[in-house]
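We include the entry.

. . .
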Amino acid sequence: MLAGFHKVASVEEQVYYRPLIDPDRTYGAFDGPSIVGTARSFPSPLTVPGPVELAVAAVTGVTVRASHRRRGVLTQMMRRQLDELARRGEPVAILIASEAPIYGRFGYGAASENARIEVAADRVRFTGPAPCGAVRYVDAGGFRRLAPPVYERFRVAQPGAIGRSARWWDMITGVLPRPGADPPGFMAVHTDDAGEPRGYVRYTVAEAWAGRAAASSIVLKDLVATSDDAYEALWRFVTSADWIVSVAGDDRPTREPLSSLVNDPRHVVQRDRADFLWVHLVDIPAALEARRYRVADRIVIDVAAGSGTPECVRVALDGGPDGATCTTTDEAADLTLTRSDLGAAYLGSTPLWPAAAGRRVDAHRPGAVEAFDRMFGEDRPAWCHTWF
């Protein structure tokens, strides 16, 4: 796997990664004795609109050696894996795509976006009164104990969020450091007036000087809050640190509330907006039944075949805020779309009308695309910032 990612694996890395591999969920493509392709998955909870927790397959470690490109290696692994996930009864597969054009062929669609945020800490000013609670630094052990429950409360309410394993937390806190990884940095936790943890932040500092004047930057690694007070308090905390002129963080939500809390939103700049979580509906009826919908309606969807999903599926979806039923049908379809566009729309943050404008959707009755978007749209954008 590491060789497929153009890395020379050290003995330490082999020892570190081996316990992550479940052989029952792992594929290797062989050319004689040599492994020339890899793919694996692991089970994970995914929060879907509702919010509702759904058990899905997280696909990762997908590689093909440069010597064996364009020989069908990836296609064979992907098809075998999707068949396996169907047998396991996992209705949805998710992944993070290193190359965007690849996975649409196999029915995956980009369902969430992240952005880089840059904050002028030396100029930004908060407009409201100071929030309740307090922020305090904690050591790695304290963070390892306090942060995971906060993240779990956040995860179950945030569409697109996935689970984080105990090993994941051990790795980012330095309890079980990944070979070659940077130190975990600084860690702090917000508690409310009752002493209950409501948020946390983890960051490093890039030290810099302009002559004798400090010009350092905070590099935000993770900031999660389960209350408005915790969110604002943590941002006040990182932007008010001495010597700091800017705060920057990757994989932030595309709709960051911070700009609404400060006197000049131009001091909060969003850059490098890009796709993050890709979704494939393995079992379309089960996946569509699992989530909730913004408005109640009924729509018949014809999901076209693709190179990675050779069969067509037509379903009748009857859903709303309180639940949904979805069954295969031979009724006339309201619209026809690709499995990748359906996957992209699944978490509620990617409307269908751009795909329709790109002629990838056929509407068989007037207003079908608009009806789809009214049903599937979600007021809170999907956000996943957990790499896997």
Notes: The CA atoms of residues 6 and 65 lie 9 Å apart. The radius of gyration is 23 Å.
